[in-house]
What we know:
- This protein is an alpha+beta fold.
- The chain has five helices and five strands, in the order ββαααββαβα.
- It has a single domain, classed as Alpha-Beta Plaits.
- The protein is 37% helix and 29% strand.
- Mean pLDDT is 80; it is low at 41-48.
Amino acid sequence: xxxxxxxxxxxxxxxxxxxxxxxxxxxxxxxxxxxxxxxxxxxxxxxxxxxxxxxxxxxxxxxxxxxxxxxxxxxxxxxxxxxxxxxxxxxxxxxxxxxxxxxxxxxxxxxxxxxxxxxxxxxxxx
Length: 126
């Protein structure tokens, strides 16, 4: 568990690795082209927002002092430019974790584990 101390703080703020993992997973899901299906699970983002932690299980966070290294396993949709999507994931995860926690993110390592077919739009089925 990481402790963040601030001079103007009246106490110690502790942010667990699990919280950073969930933040990272949600930030990765915000990028277009990242599949709604977490690696190794059939749950989607809505299950995470309801309290399940499957996206957090797809990430590993290593905290040393106030610096984080984040490893994310994810799936992408078929047809996307994987390197572009991964770059956007890295940027969004770094920016989001730093903004929400005050940690310095040294690295966001992304491992593409699977590819899924994109969901068909309702307009295509009509």
